[in-house]
Amino acid sequence: MTAQTLDGRATAAAIRRELAERVAKSTATTGRPPGLGTVLVGDDPGSHAYVAGKHRDCAQVGIASIRRDLPADASQRQVEDTIDELNADPDCTGYIVQLPLPHHLDAGAVLERMDPAKDADGLHPVNLGRLTLGVDAPLPCTPRGIVELLRRHDVPLAGARVCVIGRGVTVGRPLGLLLTRRSENSTVTLCHTGTKGLAWHVREADIVVAAAGSPGLITKDMLRPGAAVLDVGITRTDDGLVGDVHPDAAQVAGWLAPMPGGVGPMTRAMLLANVVEAAERNANTV
Ligand SMILES: NC(=O)C1=CN([C@@H]2O[C@H](COP(=O)(O)OP(=O)(O)OC[C@H]3O[C@@H](n4cnc5c(N)ncnc54)[C@H](OP(=O)(O)O)[C@@H]3O)[C@@H](O)[C@H]2O)C=CC1
Ligand SMILES: Nc1nc(=O)c2c([nH]1)NC[C@@H]1CN(c3ccc(C(=O)N[C@@H](CCC(=O)O)C(=O)O)cc3)C=[N+]21
Fold it and tell me: Per the database record, which ranges form the Tetrahydrofolate dehydrogenase/cyclohydrolase NAD(P)-binding domain (predicted)?
């Protein structure tokens, strides 16, 4: 047996087509296209490639791009001035600050300075707070992409036992918040380096989300046969990108979101969705 694919590339392409129609409508209402801003500090090649990809995605669905690239030695002041500028810019519907920032910068202070209404990543403390409270807010892109990928492949979430490996702020921690909402109704076990008996927790699960950044951590012997397995972790090695799920897992899993081609493209599509939704909220107040 080999797992069916949770195809993030095809699903993200379908979502982009749906978004393009909504962009055309909100552009007609407001007289201007939604705009996505990116703030990139420094010259990490991975981050550059990722930001370039976002601007390509925007062009495909009719979202205008606003790009602010700062040198690696940019001061806290310079970065915060850029944040203030985007907060004030009516052409910028939403934006992201590409993480990680260089170590000399205070990333928390930069993120807190963003206008929560323009937070396309859904990672502003106010928006994470709203997620916790169950109040409408932009959702974190990777967790939202994971839920959307499972829904569009009809993998049941209500009552499902989900094992999330990793409690990071971009993936694991907010994913637990999303999946335990009444609208998803999953039961989540959040694992981390302090977890005793990781294999036991993984084997209990109907859905396994590996977001640890530890290559090949999840092996076939750990899995419940037929489980849905999502490989979120990405480690750069000399041989290219490696996921958290060992290739053998496909022999036991019922569904597999591979890396690449699974959750990554969904993350990018959800960023666009957050910007389109912000534009629609603005259109309603015109
Ligand atoms: N595909 C996509 O769209 C995206 C992929 N990513 C990738 O997802 C991964 C997670 O990202 P992020 O949350 O930001 O990362 P963090 O580094 O913030 O978090 C990683 C988490 O994994 C846990 N962990 C690490 N190794 C193990 C292990 N051997 N066993 C159990 N738990 C472990 C850590 O535990 P502890 O807290 O105890 O240290 C930590 O909670 C990264 O590889 C990142 O590159 C991120 C964003 C988007
Ligand atoms: N403010 C901020 N928001 C983020 O969402 C954010 C960030 N900073 N910093 C870095 C991480 C990482 N991340 C990825 C998203 C998509 C792919 C992706 O599309 N991956 C492709 C492969 C890409 C390739 O081949 O290089 C795939 O999995 O198929 C990867 C990684 C978002 N992050």
Answer: 140-282
Q: For residue 247, how far is the Cα from the chain centroid? A: 23
Give mean pLDDT, residues 169-176. Answer: 97
Distance 177 CA to ligand 1 centre (A): 16
pLDDT higher than threshold 70 for residue 150: yes
Q: Are residues 161 and 90 in the same domain?
A: no
By percentage, how much of the chain surpasses pLDDT 90? Answer: 97
**Beta-carbon contacts of residue 155 (< 8 Å; ≥ 6 apart):** 6, 207, 228, 255
Single pTM value for the model: 0.98
Helices 141-152 and 8-30, axial angle in degrees (round to 10):
110
Cβ count within 10 A of residue 193: 10
- In the predicted model, is pLDDT for residue 1 greater than 90? no
Give the pLDDT confidence of 112-132 residue by residue, as tens digits. Answer: 999 999 999 999 999 999 999
> Ligand nearest 48 Cα, by number?
2
Q: Are residues 56 and 146 both part of a single domain?
A: no
Q: Which of 170, 175, 242, 274 has the most ligand 2 atoms within 8 A of CB, as the residue to mutate?
A: 170
- Ligand 1 center from residue 212 Cα (angstroms): 3
Ligand approaching nearest to the C-alpha of 169: 1
Together in a domain, 150 and 239: yes
**What is the number of structural domains in the chain?**
2
On whether residue 169 sits in a domain, the answer given is yes
- Annotation: binding site for NADP(+): 166-168, 234
Ligand 2 binding pocket includes 97 (Cβ within 6 Å): yes
210 in Cβ contact with 191 (< 8 Å): no
Tell me the residue range of the domain where 35 lies. 31-115
User: Catalytic residue positions?
Assistant: 54, 98, 121
Residue 249, in any domain of the structure:
yes
